[in-house]
Design goal:
Elements: H1 12-22, E1 27-31, E2 37-41, H2 42-58, E3 66-70, H3 75-86, E4 90-93, H4 100-110, E5 114-118, H5 122-128, E6 136-140, E7 152-153, H6 154-159, E8 176-181, E9 191-195, H7 196-206, E10 219-222, H8 234-241, E11 244-247, H9 254-263, E12 268-271, H10 273-286, E13 304-308, H11 314-321, E14 326-332, E15 339-342, H12 354-361, E16 366-367, E17 372-376, E18 391-396, E19 420-428, E20 434-439, E21 444-446, E22 449-451, H13 453-461, E23 466-476, E24 480-489, H14 497-506, E25 517-520, H15 534-540
Parallel strand pairs: 1-11, 3-4, 3-5, 4-8, 5-6, 6-7, 10-11, 10-12, 12-13, 13-14, 24-25
Antiparallel strand pairs: 1-2, 8-9, 14-15, 15-16, 17-18, 18-19, 19-20, 21-22, 23-24
Bound molecules: adenosine-5'-diphosphate.
Adenosine-5'-diphosphate (ADP) is lined by residues 182-183, 185, 229, 308-312, 329, 331-334, 364, 422-424, 436, 439, 527, 529, 531.
């Protein structure tokens, strides 16, 4: 028997039309390079986005063509999010933090036809322009500088297009709308292509009350770059609900973010843990007597902060909660759109102690609807959800990629039955809370036993003298690998290894799990998406030997 429902495709164009009709007066704020704020209404946004789509069609954009963006977070980038798919194209966000050669390689691999770029990023473009020829380079005058004569001016392009006489490109819900490359920290970057359908389903799920919980009165600050897994999808949710957006532009320094929060206090923000760690340290340092910044900032009490992309230390959650800001941890990947799990207070935890709530918030969380999740043992069987048995997380769902752009199906990345192999090692407890132990390549195997680098670094970061810490494995003749802790102390602190070991023993680590060596460093290197880059630390400390003592002593 056939269903009687209409067969209307899920479509981003619907969200754009809705925003234009229902939310015309709501605001989109962008911080410009000179730090002033520019205000747009959703009404203007709607017309500009349709004008962009119309202009792209006039330039000869065909269905499925890729249009790259090399932009900070601002309103014009948001116009690309909807304008490129509206014209039938695929928006491909290039990561401006990658090495120029890598950006050029990725643009070539994606076969990008056009490029939309911020004027302030043209010096970067010139470093990779020889690696890939875009038919048109469309320059958004973000700083207001004149657009070079040989390039196309984004504003002129929009001014000459007619948003009223624009027809959306015909499409199916499975047609591609956007493309993102994995960061390449675990091999050659690979392209993930999202569809209308996957994006709409992801947006609906992530917007649910216990997750982003988008409300019409929200003010959303996306610190996550729009090239990092589509800023985790929040731009789509914000347009769907017409919520006010505050884009930080290129100013992501903690002082700048705190200044912006005074001007436009957010109710929801998104970013990786390293951003929030430096933000809270800057804020706390400003409270000290004699600080030149004393009294300069207030934190936006009541803000929800979605933090993910890397493990979120419990100490960070506690530090923000003191100021009335609750951190919701999420776990996911570029391949998964990205939201797969979110840690939220389930009904069973209503009467839980504060310690228990913090402990749960420091976990990756519970699988969201439409995501099937399993934990596979080394032998290939499913692990029980007992909170102890660990294995590789594998996921399946309508917003999880089934393959990569232009790559034959990779058996390393997909199980024989098609589930995505995430490369993350975790356990799941009876309430469905996922606890990430490590990435497969970050696990430390000592004398046949696994040691979780994530657990160690979170405990070290709970020490009051520590600004940040990352734990890596170093080769060891007897035990095969041993942990080495790289620690960044807060200014003026001088804690030593003995004190850290005592602290870890108090955190119920066994003696054999303690790092054999502590290196005090100035900063933990960051990946292009702002996460701790342990590969760089492994390279740096490749030659060090750990003390020749028995780790079980
Ligand atoms: P990359 O980290 O390589 O830049 P992604 O942004 O796609 O690429 O990152 C996905 C990976 O980030 C996951 O596989 C996982 O290892 C890590 N990750 C994401 N969220 C969390 C989290 N909440 N806890 C621990 N690790 C996380």
């Amino acid at each position: 028997m056939d269903s009687t429902m209409m067969n209307v495709p899920l479509s981003l164009n619907h969200l754009l039309e809705r925003a234009g009709r229902l939310f015309a007066d709501n605001e989109i704020v962008s911080r410009l390079p000179d730090k002033t704020l520019r205000l747009h209404s959703f009404g203007a946004y709607y017309r500009r986005t349709r004008a962009l789509a119309s202009a792209l069609q006039r330039l000869g954009l065909k269905k499925g063509d890729r249009v790259a963006t090399l932009c900070w977070n601002h309103h014009a980038h948001l116009e690309c999010y909807f304008g490129i798919p509206a014209a039938g194209g695929v928006m491909h966000t290039l990561n401006l933090r990658l090495a120029p050669d890598e950006i050029g390689w990725i643009a070539g691999n994606a076969g990008d036809r056009f490029l939309v770029i911020d004027d302030v990023l043209l010096p970067l473009y010139r470093q990779f322009a020889h690696l890939h020829r875009f038919e048109k380079v469309i320059v958004f005058a973000f700083s207001g500088a004149p657009v070079p004569a040989e390039m196309t001016d984004y504003e002129a392009l929009l001014a000459n297009a007619d948003p009223d006489n624009f027809e959306y490109a015909p499409h199916h819900e499975d047609d591609p709308v956007a493309m993102c490359y994995t960061s390449g920290t675990t091999g050659r970057p690979k392209g993930v292509v999202y569809s209308h359908r996957s994006t709409i389903l992801h947006t609906l799920v992530a917007s649910l009350g216990d997750f982003w919980g988008l409300r019409g009165t929200d003010v959303v600050l996306p610190v996550t770059p729009m090239f990092h897994a589509n800023s985790w999808g929040i731009p789509y949710g914000a347009v769907m609900m017409g919520v006010k957006l505050v884009f930080p532009g290129q100013h992501l320094h903690p002082d700048d973010l705190l200044d912006l929060m005074q001007l436009e206090p957010p109710t929801l923000s998104l970013g990786v843990p390293t951003i929030w760690m430096s933000l809270i340290q800057t804020f706390d340092a400003a409270q000290a007597e004699g600080s030149p910044n004393k009294g300069r900032w207030k934190l936006p009490a009541g803000m929800r902060s979605l933090v993910g992309g890397a493990a979120v230390p419990e100490a960070l959650i506690r530090a923000f909660d003191k100021h009335g800001i609750w951190i919701l941890q999420g776990w996911g990947m570029t391949e998964t759109s990205p939201v797969c799990t979110i840690s939220y207070p389930r009904a069973e935890l209503r009467d839980a102690s504060a310690d228990e709530r913090y402990r749960r918030a420091a976990m990756a969380g519970v699988p969201v609807p439409l995501v099937d999740l399993r934990v596979r043992s080394d032998e290939g069987g499913d692990q029980p959800w007992d909170g102890e048995s660990v294995g590789e997380i594998q996921v399946r769902g309508p917003f999880i990629t089934g393959r990569y752009h232009d790559v034959p199906v990779d058996v390393e990345k997909f199980a024989p039955d098609g589930w995505l192999r995430t490369g993350d090692v975790a356990s799941v407890d009876s309430l469905g809370f996922v606890k990430i132990t490590d990435r497969t390549k970050d696990l430390i195997k000592s004398g046949g036993e696994w040691i979780s680098s994530v657990d160690l670094e979170n405990a070290i970061m709970a020490h009051p003298s520590v600004a940040e810490a990352a734990v890596i494995a170093v080769p060891d003749e007897k035990w095969s690998e041993r942990p080495l802790a790289c620690v960044v102390l807060k200014p003026g602190q001088s804690t030593d290894a003995a004190e850290f070991n005592a602290h870890l023993l108090r955190h119920s680590f066994a003696r054999w799990q303690l790092p054999d060596r502590y290196e005090f460093i100035d900063a933990v290197p960051r990946t292009s998406t702002g996460k701790f880059w342990k590969m760089k630390l492994r390279e740096r400390f490749a030659g060090v030997s750990v003390p020749a003592r028995s780790p079980t002593a």
